[in-house]
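Researcher: Let's walk through a ligand-bound prediction step by step. First, I give you the protein sequence. Second, the SMILES string for NAP. Third, you return the three-dimensional complex as structure tokens. Ready?
Model: Ready.
Researcher: Here are steps one and two:
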Amino acid sequence: MTENDAPHRTGAGDALTLPAPTVLDPATAPGLRWGVISPGHIAGQFTATAHRATASRVVSVVSRSLERAEAFAAEHGIERAVDSVEQMLAAGGLDAVYVASPHAQHHALTRPVLEAGIPVLVEKAFTLNTAEARDLLDLARAQGVFAMEAMWARFLPQYDVLRQVLASGMLGEIVEVAADHGQTFPADPSHRMFAPELGGGALLDLGVYPISFAQMVLGDLRDLAVRGTLTETGVDAYFGLLAAGADGGSARLSSTLLSRTPTQAVVNGTAGSAHLAGPFFAPSTLTITLHDGRRAVFEHPADRGDGMAYEIAESARRITAGELESPLMSWQDTLSVMGTMDAVRAELGVVYPGEEPQ
Ligand SMILES: NC(=O)c1ccc[n+]([C@@H]2O[C@H](COP(=O)([O-])OP(=O)(O)OC[C@H]3O[C@@H](n4cnc5c(N)ncnc54)[C@H](OP(=O)(O)O)[C@@H]3O)[C@@H](O)[C@H]2O)c1
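Model: Step three, the predicted complex:
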């Protein structure tokens, strides 16, 4: 076949132009007064990012230990430090609460916040299982209160550009989504990554990113084929997942806590592909390559350390507008992702304390 016969080849001078991101600068979102529950690693990043890159302020922090709450408050310039959610809620003055405990505690810590009528942003994985997620979202609906899973990746500019590329049909029909997320953790049965009572395993902490990415592109994942291995503590150490997307196309996903993997995501279509450089769930580089030879790159436009600012801004805009959820990470999206994770665990035989074996 000569170059002239190639069906999609365009002239060498043709440029590929990507849609501009529609995401607004997080600094322009309304500033909310936040409470933070569970001041661990990610709560520190959330608070520092909110204060650095948005108009929101963390004004209250809850730890199981008053000493830890006070230390966190001193570090971040937070007005109030308490050792129970009830005290935080009784003091009032909050526009929203961010829940950053291990997954197994998300449900119990979020429920009283919703009962008090306060909007919530809950770390991923939203809960341990679908039943807990449904309970919280039913409560949010009944209370007329905003709730969202803090799947921060979905609010990043590169995801916005990717969604526009997909909607434009530039990649043709979507054939496959492939994504991996592996990190290494020293084997420690008491660490939340290994402890069943803290919702341990790769799936809920790391695997939730590839699954959520595939769900965003392909819709609900169906017809799952799962293989994996377990840790000595009985949580998943590795899983590989093949699935069909409700909107067409297939997913090929993996996650592990035994190896640091490239953490890349790819969407392959009949006319081209989209590649998110690792780590694909953080501010990174989106490359679109079409089969006709054209290529374009989108780079994260701001300070890469401010990635969490986009979910804080999205929450603030929706809450201020009186909305209950975000279309970028809807309640249905959370339930879909949780359903896939339930199904993966059922295949692997991972059952958390208090759950019925499936
Ligand atoms: N968005 C992201 O990029 C990202 C990154 C990492 C983690 N995460 C998510 O954030 C959550 C927390 O992760 P992390 O890495 O921040 O964990 P972490 O550093 O272990 O902090 C979690 C905090 O929760 C509290 N906690 C621990 N065990 C608890 C229990 N049994 N009951 C109630 N509270 C408990 C502790 O605070 P006190 O003892 O002071 O109360 C602890 O500092 C997880 O759901 C994880 O998936 C998100």
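Researcher: And what stands out?
Model: Residues 38-43, 63-65, 68, 100-103, 105, 123-124, 150, 152, 192, 205 surround NAP (CB under 6 Å). The first strand starts at residue 33 and ends at 37.
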